[in-house]
């Protein structure tokens, strides 16, 4: 859908969970917008800050030396009010009051749902996928996933070292909400013996226990279980496994360390291009769009179409992960 008039002032906000690379996207939005002759306003604390009018003018200097920083310089917050018609009307009214005729929303599905509502109220919006969970269906890449999965991989390597020294079983819980992408990637990258994914786990704990016992009989000195956040309960699971196997079992919950840290080169570059692409869409008169990455290309989708898509774990990747681990049948 085309915007009715040329965009003169754009706003940019980060919403929902933060992810490494968001600052690269903000920087790109600001500098691309300024290069195209627009004014750029930064909105602090997501939709919550929008409703409270925490809005600042941004210059190229304001985003200097931010590309290497984790988190988001604009801060972020959850906003229950944005789920209500009254909150949506309020947010649209604030945009109009501050002359924001184009809005770039960096976040996940929940953030895009807010952008969709604002677009329906006449605010030109473009969404940029920023989430470590990789759970946005229209894109193969989301800002922050690459950094988060590398952070988790390095932490799991360290846990494996001590787990081997003590001949332990280690359950390591990674983030991802109800999506198992971080767990799947770490399972392959860290050579885990078991990977528990929300999309696949059958909650047959006895099967895991049998696998641990069999591996110990074969002479394996440690056992690594990657547990996805969507399954959780790693500490109680560790206690049950230790009681059943007699093997010392420890749970490590990596938690929010996965959200932080300096973004990888991939997250910096992809986020920069996506941020610039979002500005270009607005400049071209496009609205109600979501930026994505598929088959080596940066593309965009209608926001309604993007939110209606479903994303599943790639079956082949899961099958490979299973076959490369210490399988139950060998």
TrEMBL record:
Q: Which residues bind ATP?
A: 17, 78-79, 108-111
Q: Where in the cell is it found?
A: Cytoplasm
* Pathway annotation from the record: Carbohydrate degradation; glycolysis; D-glyceraldehyde 3-phosphate and glycerone phosphate from D-glucose: step 3/4
- InterPro entries, alphabetically? ATP_PFK, ATP_PFK_prok-type, PFKA_ATP_prok, Phosphofructokinase_CS, Phosphofructokinase_dom, PKF_sf
GO cellular-component terms in the record?
6-phosphofructokinase complex
Keyword Transferase in annotation = yes
Q: Transferase: present as a keyword of the record?
A: yes
Q: Which cofactor does it need?
A: Mg(2+)
Q: Specify which residues bind ADP according to the UniProt entry for this protein.
A: 27-31, 160, 191-193, 218, 220-222
Q: How does it assemble?
A: Homotetramer.
* Family, as annotated: Belongs to the phosphofructokinase type A (PFKA) family. ATP-dependent PFK group I subfamily. Prokaryotic clade 'B1' sub-subfamily.
Q: What's this protein's name? A: ATP-dependent 6-phosphofructokinase
Q: Give the species this sequence originates from.
A: Candidatus Egerieimonas intestinavium
Mind giving the lineage of the organism this protein is from? Bacteria, Bacillati, Bacillota, Clostridia, Lachnospirales
């Amino acid at each position: 859908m085309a915007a009715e008039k040329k965009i003169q002032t754009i706003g940019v906000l980060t919403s929902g969970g933060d992810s490494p690379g968001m600052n690269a996207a903000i920087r790109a939005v600001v500098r691309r917008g300024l290069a195209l002759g627009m004014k750029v306003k930064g909105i602090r604390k997501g939709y919550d800050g929008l409703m409270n009018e925490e809005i600042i003018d941004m210059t190229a200097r304001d985003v200097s030396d931010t590309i290497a920083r984790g988190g988001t310089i604009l801060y972020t917050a959850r906003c229950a009010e944005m789920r209500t018609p009254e909150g949506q009307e309020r947010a649209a009214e604030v945009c109009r009051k501050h002359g924001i005729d184009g809005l770039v929303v960096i976040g996940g599905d929940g953030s895009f749902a807010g952008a969709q509502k604002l677009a329906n109220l006449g605010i030109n919006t473009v969404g940029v996928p920023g989430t470590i969970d990789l759970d946005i269906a229209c894109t193969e890449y989301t800002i922050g996933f690459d950094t988060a999965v590398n952070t988790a991989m390095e932490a799991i390597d360290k846990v494996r070292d001590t787990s081997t020294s003590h001949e332990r079983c280690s359950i390591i819980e990674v983030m991802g909400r109800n999506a198992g992408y971080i767990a799947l990637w770490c399972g392959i990258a860290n050579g885990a013996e078991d990977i528990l994914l929300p999309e696949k786990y059958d909650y047959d704990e006895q099967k895991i226990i049998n696998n641990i016992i069999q591996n110990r009989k074969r002479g394996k000195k440690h056992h690594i279980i990657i547990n996805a956040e969507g399954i959780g309960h790693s500490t109680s699971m560790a206690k049950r496994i230790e009681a059943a196997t007699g093997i010392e079992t420890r749970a490590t919950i990596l938690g929010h360390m996965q959200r932080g840290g300096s973004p990888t080169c991939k997250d910096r570059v992809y986020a920069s291009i996506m941020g610039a692409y979002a500005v270009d869409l607005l400049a071209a008169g496009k609205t109600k769009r979501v930026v994505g990455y598929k088959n080596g290309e940066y593309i965009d989708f209608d926001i309604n179409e993007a939110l209606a898509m479903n994303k599943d774990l790639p079956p082949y990747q899961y099958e490979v992960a299973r076959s490369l681990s210490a399988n139950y049948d060998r």
